Amino acid sequence: MSIQGKHIIVTGGGSGVGAKTAKALAKQGAKVTIMGRKETPLQEQCLPYQICDVTNEKNVEAAFDVVRSEYGPIWGVIANAGAAKSLPFKKVDQAHLQSMLAVNLIGVSNSFRAGLPDMLDANDGRMIAIASTAGLKGYAYASAYAAAKHGVVGLVRSLAIEIASKGITVNAICPGYIETPLLDSAIADIIKKSSMSRIEVEKSLIKGNPQDRFIQADEVAEAVLWLCSNGARSVNGHAMALSGGEI
Ligand SMILES: NC(=O)c1ccc[n+]([C@@H]2O[C@H](COP(=O)([O-])OP(=O)(O)OC[C@H]3O[C@@H](n4cnc5c(N)ncnc54)[C@H](OP(=O)(O)O)[C@@H]3O)[C@@H](O)[C@H]2O)c1
Hints:
CATH superfamily: NAD(P)-binding Rossmann-like Domain
Bound molecules: NADP nicotinamide-adenine-dinucleotide phosphate
CATH class: Alpha Beta
Order of helices and strands: EHEHEHEHEHEHHHE
Strand content: 15-25%
């Protein structure tokens, strides 16, 4: 079994990890649909796309219905859409917590649930969440983001058991800092709030990784490809760290 011809949705596919992953899947012959809120970055990937806000359940269901009718039953969902904002806990009000949970946790749940019926019908499928090392350990100034990503890991572990007998696997990938637009804006934010230079900020983030480097988006894409392979069919309910040994 290969992913040739399989319909796979990648949320947040217009940039960073999502764009790299979508291209890697398409290169292996999958029918890939990317989703996100902004049209221009989606268009730039030259892949079929659908506008979708993963925080909105009805919007996700409608978007999945459109692409299902255009490109066929959904075999895989890569729930990658996410956002990060760091704040000291005294500033983590309910609105901030809700916004982090909405995109990083509820967005994953909405996306998995919208793809589930086709996978149950086929007795086959893959669900992969791009979580974070912040789903496995804490980081200062990231309590809301880490709470959401820990939630994703809990969701994945539970759903994996619930549907294990249905030929569907559910896993999370937990990378450390990856060089993407999301990291760029996090670095810019830290520079603004501290007296550190860009190099100092980068050094302070890199030092958490024993390999002394940022993760690259193509490493995440390769992990997704492997989890989609037939050889990984018994890998289920895992939270796979890509962190150079940080965790
Ligand atoms: N970069 C890192 O250091 C790092 C480390 C560990 C884990 N991660 C995780 O990796 C994933 C990908 O992040 P990235 O680094 O590739 O960042 P990115 O380039 O900023 O990509 C995030 C994507 O998510 C989409 N998105 C955001 N909110 C959305 C919403 N409500 N509905 C639909 N799409 C939405 C964005 O598109 P629109 O704005 O157009 O919607 C964008 O394409 C995220 O889940 C992130 O938490 C990143």
